[in-house]
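Quick one, T. Sequence first:
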Amino acid sequence: MIGERLIMVIEGSEARSQNLKELIEFMDAPRVRVSGPNNWRKRLGDCRLAAIFLGDDLEQDVIDQVIKDVGDVDPNTPIVMVSADEVSG
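Structure tokens:
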């Protein structure tokens, strides 16, 4: 749906991203999608970003690029850095 807000989970690990997605959905969050760092804009489609959950399993230069790209889309988008311990614990 055009303009719908969603939360994007960007992780290097599919299993971790799915676990985090389930945790966020459990809290009755708006729509949640998972993505790798290279295709999150495509997965976003026509939706608006509500927030980004960004995994620390990515290389620092990839994290920096995603943060820059999110800022280009909407500089007011909250970005939450998630460590592996938080997702699996």
